Amino acid sequence: MVMGQLHLYAMSIERFRDLFGKAGEEAARLRRIAEKAFPAPEAPALRMIDKLGPIMRRAASEPVIRADVPTGIELEALISGSFVPPTRLVAAWALVLAWLDDYAERTAIVEGTTDEFSNADFELALAGLPSQFTLSACFTHELQIPLGTPLGWHTGWQKGAAMREGAEHWAKATEEISQENRELLADVIDWFADWADDEQDLLVAYQPG
Q1: If residue 157 lies in a helix (H) or strand (E), which one and from where to where?
Q2: What is the pLDDT of residue 50?
Q3: Fewest CB atoms less than 10 Å from the CB: which of 157, 179, 185, 207?
Q4: Order of strands across the sheet that contains 202-207
Q5: Which residues contact 129 (CB under 8 A, 6 or more apart)?
Q6: What is the C-alpha separation between 14 and 32, in angstroms, rounded?
């Protein structure tokens, strides 16, 4: 099975929601982040075949729009809080993740498959981890932003207070799980152990491979 990525962000959920539908300096910052993360490709030199005009369905030098790479259309839609069609959700989320990388107090990426994370969750439960602190519980609350979730993705958030409360439970449970799962969850374990600020919530996004 292809590896996916579990993205972890320490950021207030209200601050995150406030990024959508912005104007002024905040919008300018969001555009700068996007331009840095996804610089515009250089325009190729015009070739003779490109001069054939409308008989060609698409000029050979015209850039191909990839489903996973955002354009200015998605950027402006997110900034204004406008609708993004399902075919462009993956591209739009690439922008959102870039914003979170810049705004969040802490970030981490954990690579693994959905089966691996599910198995780790099951082993944690057997080790006595209360259900409200499992990995799946991190997705308990919907983000409630004006952007849909792409097919196969999972997104959500958990309160910072719950993260802090769960730290001790994680420390005990992870002593009882396999070395394989301890290695898989190393960054998550560190997050629980170091969580000391209830002001920051945990925002999560699972991106399939």
Answers
A1: strand 154-158
A2: 53
A3: 179
A4: 106-112, 4-10, 202-207, 154-158
A5: 169, 170, 173
A6: 22
- The 3-state DSSP composition of the chain as helix, strand, coil percent (nearest 5) reads 50, 10, 40
- Give the C-alpha separation, 203 to 54, whole Å: 47
Q: What's the pLDDT tens digit per position in 47-64?
A: 554 544 444 444 445 566
Alpha-carbon distance values, 11 to 63, 94, 97 (Å): 35, 18, 12
Report the predicted TM-score, pTM, of the whole model to 2 decimal places: 0.87
Q: How confident is the model at residue 197 (pLDDT cuts 50, 70, 90)?
A: confident
Tokens of 133: 């602190």
H-only helix segments in 38-126: 72-80, 89-103, 114-126
Q: Are 170 and 193 in contact (CB under 8 A)?
A: yes
